[in-house]
Amino acid sequence: MANYDAGLASSYVLRMNAWEASTNASANQSSVSWYLEIIKGTGSGKYAGGPHYWSVNIGGNTYSGSFSSYDFRNYSLLTLASGSTTINHSADGTGSAYIGGSFDDGNTYGVLGDATAQGTLGLSTLKVVPGTPSGVTAARVSDTSVNVSWAQSSASNGQPVSSQIYRSVNGSSYDKVLDIGATTSASVTSAANQKLSYKVSSWNSAGFGGTSAASAAVYTTPGAPTNATAVKNSSLNIDIAFTPNVAYTEHTHQVWHGTVSGGVTTWDGSALATLASGTTGYTHTAPNSGQVHVYRVRSASGSLYSGYSTTQSVQLLVAPNKPDVPSMAAYADKAVALDFYWVHNPIDTTPQKAYEFSYSLNGGASYTTTGKITSTVTFRTLDANTIPAGLTFTSRVRTWGSATTGGSEGTGASPWSDLRAVTFKTAPAATITTPSSGSTLNDATVRVTVGFSQAEGASFVGTQIELKQGATLLETMDSALQVGITLSTQVQNGSSYTVRARVQDSNGIWSSWATSTFNVVYLSPVPAVATASYLPDTGYGQLNVSIASPAGGQSAATTLTITRKIDGITEVIVSSYPVSSALTFLDTTPTIHGTNTYTFTTTSALGAQSVTTVIMVTEECRRAYLSKGAGFSNVVVFGGNLSVSESLSVASATVEAAGRTKPIGLYGIETSVQLKVKSLIFEGFGSSVSQVRAILLVPGKACYRDSSGRRVFGSVSGSLSYDKAARGDLSFTLTETS
């Protein structure tokens, strides 16, 4: 409520009261209520007869009146008039109203005088939501851009501030894609292979208006088909198939036909067929059988066309090329059936329907033929013992597809294949003379002697030998020897074995297998009795071995082999060492903190073996060792403040490549380990400064071992610094080598 006051006599006040009682935004109007009153001032009440006059102006709407008298002797307030007036707002919804009220006391009985109370009443700004856009249209600009336009009709106080565009892709729900200012067109991004429709709504401070009806659909270039194929069917028509990739149903596919001649494709001037959406194949009926046909398929939507998917070429009925015939051995065993194979070689893709096989026994002077045989079989079998030894069999073949004209004789036949000649021979015979069947072998090593014979005088080329125990194949060996063929498998005492052998002659023919079953009976050698002890001054392992004379049921041991295993890796300490009753060996490179497993193998003169295992566990925690020289027999020991650092790497290289901002890394399997060792040399513990200096100058590979269990072999380089002859700092680098 707004009060507008004007003064009258004796501090009386003329008051004009006005307020916005209600609004009607859709009519862009407000209702203003008002009243005009006189408020009593100071002194005793006044009285005056009339007439007295009043008038009111509310936004240009005027009201007036008069009354006969007033009396303030008993009343403090006099209401002259009241009412309600409708005020029209400006077109943009803003509004205000002039408010004025006047009082005229009259000329005859005036006591209060005249006054006018006036002012301006501010009104609410009235807004309505924008109207619903209409006439929405969409026009494709390119596959990546669509222009959307619409009409906007809104009340003057409902003009939009922004518009929102909603899009449906390939029939999906409408999602907002753009929010722009008060405009009636916009460019919206798109993509190929889309069916697009749009809706529009507008907004101002009063809220969102209605959403328009959808535009008619607009399309971008349809997706190209893939996997187009063309296959000749049994009716000698050509079936074209493809995989459609259009994301919307409003499309067609065009099938185009072309012919190929001399490697050049000529396409027809118009499409062979237009296929409705959902159709993925077409049959070209009665194509010209004298042509090579090819097809391509594209999708279409209105005037928009995809790229093509092209089929392979299809040749209709034509005689095949000569069959492909695999090469054959020059000689064959007359007692074994022999298959002659070929591969039908069509030009028109039709499979083999018939063949003719012919052969000659006189070098091709004359041929015997099977005649044309209706069959899809692609081999011919010559039964065993059909051709005598020494006779050469020369063969050829030709085939038919579906063509009944053309070819080598006008019947659709292919040319004859290349000739294949095979001379039949008698297979060689094999015998096993050692070990003979039923014999007893007094040895752990099997040595085989094979006999050979061949009726036509062919020579021995090689033999293949198998050693089996029951049904288990233990070993296979190929050899160019006949005598003294030594197998690597050690046979076990008290077991039975079978040797199988076959021989090959100079004609390349193998014999049947010959078999010999034998028993094995021999005495095992005396096993070694051994101990292993750790020598802390050198970090060596000392191996003490004693081998007794054979007792009953034993044979004498002739050689001794010692191996050592650390963390699954086996190394040879000594190999085939002649046996004596007591032996001592030094292992110069055991682990000094871990488990060393030693295997002692004694071997008899006949090759039998006995095995003994000894374990040496070391727990060195104070010393480290560096060894060099033959058998790593030169060793120094050091310790105290031991510091070891490792540098590890994998072989790699970089290669610059065109189109790349960074080089390509190539990584190999080679690894590199580099140790950097620092220690103290001091009097009373380990080797002296001079001993350490001397070993660094010894040629050859070094071995470094420390209390972590580390064993590294490689090249070493180092330095010594010392103030006194008996004490100094040792520093060296060891790079692992193979």
Features:
738 residues; seven-stranded antiparallel beta sheet; Immunoglobulin-like; six-stranded mixed beta sheet; 1 helix; 61 strands; mainly beta
Task: Give a brief description.
With 738 residues, this protein is an all-beta fold. 1% of the residues lie in helices and 58% in strands. It has seven domains: 2-123, Immunoglobulin-like; 134-219, Immunoglobulins (Immunoglobulin-like), CATH 2.60.40; 226-315, Immunoglobulins (Immunoglobulin-like, Sandwich), CATH 2.60.40.10; 321-329 and 340-424, Immunoglobulin-like (Sandwich); 429-520, Immunoglobulins (Immunoglobulin-like); 524-620, Sandwich (Immunoglobulin-like); 624-736, Elongation Factor Tu (Ef-tu), domain 3 (Beta Barrel).
General description of the model:
The chain has 738 residues and is mostly beta strands. It folds into seven domains: 2-123, Sandwich (Immunoglobulin-like); 134-219, Immunoglobulins (Immunoglobulin-like), CATH 2.60.40.10; 226-315, Sandwich (Immunoglobulin-like); 321-329 and 340-424, Immunoglobulins (Immunoglobulin-like), CATH 2.60.40; 429-520, Immunoglobulins (Immunoglobulin-like, Sandwich); 524-620, Immunoglobulin-like (Sandwich), CATH 2.60.40.10; 624-736, Elongation Factor Tu (Ef-tu), domain 3, CATH 2.40.30. Helices cover 1% and strands 58% of the residues. The protein contains one helix and 61 strands. The two termini are 104 Å apart. Residues 665-670 have low confidence and may be disordered.
